[in-house]
Specification:
The protein has 5 helices and no strands. The protein has one domain. Helices cover about 70% and strands about 0% of the residues.
């Protein structure tokens, strides 16, 4: 079980457009799949849906994609 401070930090990172999933993994040790699971279990269903729509395919959240366009 994650403590509340750590959980809030991961959620803040996940919402931030400029922080990629690779950066989140470097900082927290959680991969993209784990972050999605964490967000699903800690956000309201509508908030989770909005977040998923926001980050799906977003270049800045996927370092591999964003590096191609640089």
């Amino acid at each position: 079980m994650l403590n509340e401070k750590y959980l809030n930090k991961v959620i803040d990172f996940a919402w931030a457009d400029e922080i990629s999933f690779d950066s989140i993994k470097e900082q927290t040790g959680l991969n993209e799949k784990q972050v999605i699971k964490l967000m699903r279990s800690n956000l309201k269903p509508r908030s989770f849906k909005l977040w998923r729509e926001r980050v799906s395919g977003r270049k800045s959240k996927h370092s591999k994609i964003s590096n191609i366009y640089r």
